[in-house]
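Predict structure. Chain length: 338.
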Amino acid sequence: KRYTGLMQCLQAKHAKLPEGACRVKVRSSLRVLAYFPTANSPLLAECRDQFTAYCGAPDGVDLMEDDALLRCLREHRALFTGGCRAKVMSIERMAHNEMDFNAEVSEACAVELRTQCRGVDSRQQLSCLERMGEVRAAKLAPTCSRVLQGFKERAAQSVELMGKVSSVCREDYELLCASASALQHPGASIQCLKDSRGQLRSKDCKAAVLGLMAGASRDSRLDAMLQSQCGRDLFECTRAGVLPGEGRLLKCLKEKLSKLQPSCAAQLRKTVHAEAEDVRVNFEVSKACEAELHHYCASVKPEGALGCLELHLGGSDFGAPCATAVRATMRLALQDYR
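Prediction complete.
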């Protein structure tokens, strides 16, 4: 028992251990626990009943196989409570922060990690794969792309799984969004930071939050609250042939704003307001107006860039795609005026 307690203490402090044999041994033991949850005694002690309830194994079997149990605990993460949730989130944080502890992505993206991210620190390998997916999508195998997308979407559900955001926004989060952490609704904590962006004290935190919003503007699957509130309407968009990414699903929702379910429309209006307020979180305008922003509005703050573009709409060298994007944003902003 004493050894077990010491090992658990070392595992909790593994990031601060100096290089050497002890650190190697502790990280190796952590990797086993992260890859094989059925061998994780502290996790099972806290979670066995909840795993049985939410991750039911076949008749006659005590628990699922490790890979199935990993998928289940991630898919049902919001349902776990008490000490079980703390243990599950500990495993999730490790998996999202460092590839050495991420069994699913390591297996699905083994070729890409070996050929494209060789030599990259384990803590940066997820970012390496994400950059590959954004810049050279064809380089990612379908299985790797699918599993990686799933992890990105799950990270968007909780500040706890976003290492950088969690770090730079700790004080602002505790001040403004502490109550959101008690909510089980996926994305509630991140939505609170987005809604409070004008009150954030830390410049690094505000930059990180704006980065999240920009990413969600490009790929609405990374907006957990929008996914939750607009699931039915997003399904209609995909059934009509609209592909995710490049702002397409968000554009589809905007085009039928007046016909959306009330809860979806209310959530979408938050996005519409933010995009009219700051061009950095407006993927459609940022992409269509790159040249115009540089030519006409280089000295204007991002918060005033949309107004700057609107003033120059009649310019002889103002591109039609940019004009269309600006007018669409302004039209939606006016439609949402209260």
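Summary: Residues 82-97 form the longest helix (16 residues).
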